[in-house]
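lol forgot to send this yesterday, sorry. struct tokens for the thing we talked abt
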């Protein structure tokens, strides 16, 4: 696992929210967002898609966990329907784990990253969510990133 520290800027996002247990059920809303973005000519080589786990399943019942899939958009973006929401990612310092973009690698990373943070003496900032970041450049290399907010 490749690990770096990064200051992530404030991102404006158009997003879809799903409520329920985290996992493979998040895939359909990712596809829904991508199809919407393609239809609106918003998906290109420079696009960034974010998967945002809004709740910690250790403290929130799986049925109540919120997962957002968002596309980074410009400030002037206008939402034109009822299922796309508009929001913003809070900027800050993140520990970024670059991993292979496979279900197995993603599952392993989610299991291993907390001990890796502890080994490096990083403290998680629980006021910001963990973000899965999918830039088209990395996806083309079969990679993605998990960005953990740190203090």
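and heres what i got for the seq, position by position
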């Amino acid at each position: 696992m490749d690990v770096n520290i990064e200051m992530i800027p404030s991102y404006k996002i158009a997003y879809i929210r799903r409520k329920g247990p985290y996992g493979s059920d998040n895939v359909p809303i990712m596809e829904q967002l991508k199809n919407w973005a393609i239809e609106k000519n918003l998906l290109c080589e420079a696009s960034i898609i974010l998967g945002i786990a809004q709740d910690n399943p250790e403290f929130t019942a799986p049925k109540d966990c919120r997962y957002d899939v968002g596309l980074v958009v410009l400030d002037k973006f206008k939402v034109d329907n009822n299922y796309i929401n508009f929001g913003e990612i809070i900027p800050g310092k993140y520990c970024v784990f670059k991993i292979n973009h496979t279900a197995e690698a993603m599952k392993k990373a989610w299991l291993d990253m907390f001990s890796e943070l502890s080994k490096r003496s990083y403290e998680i900032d629980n006021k910001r969510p963990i973000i899965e970041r999918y830039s088209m450049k990395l996806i083309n290399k079969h990679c993605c990133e998990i960005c953990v907010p740190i203090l």
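The first helix runs from residue 27 to 39. anyway ping me if u want another try
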